[in-house]
């Protein structure tokens, strides 16, 4: 879907989409506190608890192509409205899940929320990428990222206040309870999410109505003529190495980002840090990402290029990974939080590099990039299995191959224009 839009009139759409990305971030990064919360209330192991991330992010892979088809049929604006309402349905599913304390129903709600986000993300990311000059796309996406991660910093703190304010005392008291008392206590714990998720459901539903009447210009699909002379001989979207390698890089990036944000609380708990302290750790990861985004907004493209930002991000990721597994205690946790700084500019940089010169294939290319969000579903499960087999610290070795591939894409992968060469 090639979007044609005047850069002189992109302020209103940017403001609206920035507000949406705040909502995206708030809902998405609740997973960081939901993982330890559901691990306690549903009595799960590390591997089982990471199905929270799996159920949420796998929806992107399954629903990306249907989302692109839906947006082609009903348009960008109506698609956003429907996406928000689908998210509202997902948050509403938490209410019966909490009442009967059923983990599979919680996962169903997360999948539905992820489905709504797939519709919204499929529209928003390529739209923002082409709304202005290609060389400053990372800057625009970084602005959205600040909104997203600011919400991500607030969300786990706010939810933790309602559902795990007495977490340390509760965990200790559960150990001394008989089976019946423990079941009642866990039922009460599960029901704590009901009021917050009722509030989120109402907000998402009202936002859907708000978007319907918002002054957001209609974005039309047009015939793809950009770079047509260079791509006329290509028959498939898979003939673009810069895209396919970008999809793989994005897969590893999203996996690394979700591991950094969603496992840090569990990691802190495994080191003996009290829950009242550890529940803040996801917010620290989000804040370090905001620092990275601010760097991107300030320096791209006037001082540094998108490619250079991507290369330095990968190098920092490798350094921080080594720091996590070779240090101990709170220092190691700080290195995990620092992944946010390394991750911040990866998504903004990969999108324009991967979509560059796709011409009429940009719609399918965008859907493939959204499908790469499945890295956030699969790689945290690998981390969970490694943490059960070895320990939570050694599981972070998984981050190094992720950043190594991102480094390859930054240095060479995005430049490859033909598989034959």
TrEMBL record:
What protein family does this chain belong to?
Belongs to the major facilitator superfamily. FHS transporter (TC 2.A.1.7) family.
What SUPFAM superfamilies does this protein map onto?
Answer: MFS general substrate transporter
| Entry-linked PANTHER family | L-FUCOSE-PROTON SYMPORTER, N-ACETYL GLUCOSAMINE TRANSPORTER NAGP
* The keyword Transmembrane belongs to this UniProt entry's keyword annotation: yes
Task of the protein = Intake of glucose and galactose.
InterPro entries reported for this sequence: Glc/Gal_transptr_bac, MFS, MFS_trans_sf, MFS_TsgA-like
**Cellular location of this protein?**
Cell inner membrane
List cellular component terms (GO).
plasma membrane
Give the record's membrane topology: Multi-pass membrane protein
Per the record, the GO terms for biological process are:
D-glucose transmembrane transport
**Keywords assigned by UniProt?**
Cell membrane, Membrane, Transmembrane, Transmembrane helix
Report the protein name in the record: Glucose/galactose MFS transporter
Q: Does the keyword Membrane apply?
A: yes
| Superkingdom field | Bacteria
Name its species: Ancylomarina longa
Give the matching Gene3D superfamilies: MFS general substrate transporter like domains (1.20.1250.20)
What GO molecular functions are on record for this protein? Answer: D-glucose transmembrane transporter activity; galactose transmembrane transporter activity
Its transmembrane ranges are 12-35, 47-70, 106-129, 141-164, 194-214, 240-260, 280-301, 308-325, 331-354, 366-383, 395-411
């Amino acid at each position: 879907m090639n979007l044609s839009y005047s850069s002189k009139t992109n302020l209103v759409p940017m403001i609206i989409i920035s507000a949406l990305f705040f909502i995206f971030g708030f809902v998405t990064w609740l997973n960081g506190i939901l993982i330890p919360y559901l691990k306690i209330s549903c009595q799960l192991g590390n591997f089982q608890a990471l199905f929270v991330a799996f159920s949420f992010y796998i929806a992107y892979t399954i629903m990306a192509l249907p989302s692109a088809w839906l947006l082609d049929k009903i348009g960008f604006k109506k698609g956003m409205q429907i996406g928000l309402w689908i998210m509202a349905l997902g948050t509403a599913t938490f209410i019966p899940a909490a009442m009967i304390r059923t983990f599979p129903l919680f996962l169903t709600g997360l999948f539905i929320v992820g489905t709504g986000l797939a519709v919204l993300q499929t529209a928003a990311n390529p739209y923002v990428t082409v709304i202005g000059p290609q060389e400053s796309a990372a800057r625009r996406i970084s602005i959205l990222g600040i909104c997203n991660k600011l919400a991500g910093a607030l969300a786990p703190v706010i939810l933790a206040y309602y559902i795990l304010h007495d977490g340390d005392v509760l965990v200790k008291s559960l150990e001394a309870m008989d089976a019946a008392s423990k079941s009642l206590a866990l039922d009460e714990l599960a029901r704590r999410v009901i009021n917050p998720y009722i509030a989120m459901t109402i907000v998402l539903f009202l936002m859907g109505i708000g978007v319907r009447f918002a002054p957001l210009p209609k974005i039309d699909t047009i015939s793809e003529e950009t770079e047509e002379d260079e791509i006329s001989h290509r028959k498939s979207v898979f003939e673009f190495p810069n895209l396919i390698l970008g999809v793989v890089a994005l897969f590893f990036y999203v996996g690394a980002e979700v591991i950094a944000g969603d496992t840090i609380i569990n990691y802190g708990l495994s080191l003996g840090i009290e829950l009242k302290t550890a529940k803040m750790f996801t917010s620290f990861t989000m804040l370090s990402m905001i620092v990275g985004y601010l760097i991107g907004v300030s320096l791209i493209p006037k001082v540094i290029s998108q490619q250079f930002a991507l290369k330095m991000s990968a190098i920092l990721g490798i350094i921080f990974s080594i720091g996590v597994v070779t240090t101990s205690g709170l220092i190691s946790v700080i290195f995990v939080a620092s992944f946010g700084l390394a991750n911040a500019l990866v998504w903004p940089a990969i999108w324009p590099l991967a979509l560059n010169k796709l011409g009429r294939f940009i719609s399918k290319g965008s859907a493939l990039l959204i499908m790469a969000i499945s890295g956030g579903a699969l790689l945290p499960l690998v981390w969970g299995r490694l943490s059960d087999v070895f320990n939570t610290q050694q599981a972070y070795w998984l981050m190094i191959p992720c950043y190594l591939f991102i480094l390859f894409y930054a240095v060479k992968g995005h430049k490859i224009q033909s598989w034959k060469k």
